[in-house]
């Protein structure tokens, strides 16, 4: 006798299969995000640069990532999310192999920037899940659950990456050490090719190349202004003039996108009452979760006897610190459905999550001399960060029409990435002792710079909580929200 499974059961089985393959993609993403953090000081030594300059790697990668996201997310809506996922994975593999053999600052900077294409993986995966569960009757709920599983796998893989590099850094040649992530990314390309089904795009139209050019110029001019501030100091007239020029270009970009029928960044959607609080939260969240990681690594490894601050930690302990932080991220992601029920809604859960991130970084201001203090601080921040990483793309998808889920979820990573890029550049300035890129300049970052980093990260997190309170209550419900 043949029986037919209920649609909900069929959808659940289908979702489990696709999430299983996507988990492997997030494992690769987690390794990329965790592998380098414990060895940033060793990379700086390998390239003969100061620890403050390491932040420019992060800033460059985040800027390139921010430019990739709207283009790749738009392409995902047009030609299919699997196709774009494959392309971005191939580009990431190229950048990862480039890093393994880059001999100096400039070539490493280029490879690091190219590697940033992986930033679009999670939004594309969530868009795939969102599309797959369209006929389930529980689309938003299943999307949130799928996102939580992916983020949980991502964070656990960060631990694997961090522990691996921290253990091997003293025994392997740097080129061989840097080649290992490239092997993982190359393997995951074939996982996507075989395991994820192809589906056509839901949207029609073309690519807004003029809009992409405008936002590229705007971000480039902004970063140029920050570089001038880095070179000349906070009083640099040409630095501030360049930053003001970037604001003018951003304004022109925004006006152009409002009139364009197929914008590269759907500013009308992003400015809707249900979307803008999510996107502003993502931008502010990018400051601590992306911009604050390199300062954490360099501070923890600073010798307090020589500098008067720091934890004097070895790379292996940095792996432990990252491991605890990431475990709490995974807990925050996996328990998001539970905390949502306990707190009476997604918005309340996310407001609490933002406050936890802010509290964790705020505690760094008075408590920064003992390793147990670092573990407590980052553990608190990690609980909130995990919930935000899991929930923000799903919240954006819930507040977008079906044919725009790719761009909506992508822009949560895009705005987060822009926030992280700006923060990385600002933190590079704060952690520069002399304000000069000259090779003879002092390489030790001032303690006041680290205090600035922690204060900015805390303030941004509390502002994110306020932004979420401005969202309408229905923005995070399971019912789709019209833009």
How would you characterize the overall build of this protein?
With 483 residues, this protein is mainly alpha-helical. The chain contains 20 helices and no strands. The protein is globular. Helix content is 75%, strand content 0%. It starts with 6 loop residues before the first helix and ends in a 14-residue tail after the last helix.
Compact summary:
The chain has helices at 7-35, 40-47, 54-79, 81-101, 105-115, 121-132, 139-168, 174-195, 209-232, 237-259, 267-270, 276-291, 293-301, 304-307, 315-334, 336-343, 346-362, 371-398, 405-430, 447-469. The protein is mainly α and 483 residues long.
Provide the fold topology.
Layout: H1 7-35, H2 40-47, H3 54-79, H4 81-101, H5 105-115, H6 121-132, H7 139-168, H8 174-195, H9 209-232, H10 237-259, H11 267-270, H12 276-291, H13 293-301, H14 304-307, H15 315-334, H16 336-343, H17 346-362, H18 371-398, H19 405-430, H20 447-469
Pairing-aware structural class of the strands and helices?
mainly alpha
Terminal CA distance reads 47 Å
Which value, in Å, is the CA radius of gyration? 21 Å
Element order: H for helix, E for strand: HHHHHHHHHHHHHHHHHHHH
Q: Report the average pLDDT across residues.
A: 80
The number of distinct β-strands equals 0
Characterize the largest beta sheet: strand count, sense, and whether it forms a barrel. Answer: none
Q: Kindly state the percentage of residues in helix.
A: over 70%
Proportion of residues in β-strands: under 5%
Uncertain segments: 1-6, 434-442, 479-483
Shape: globular
Number of helices: 20
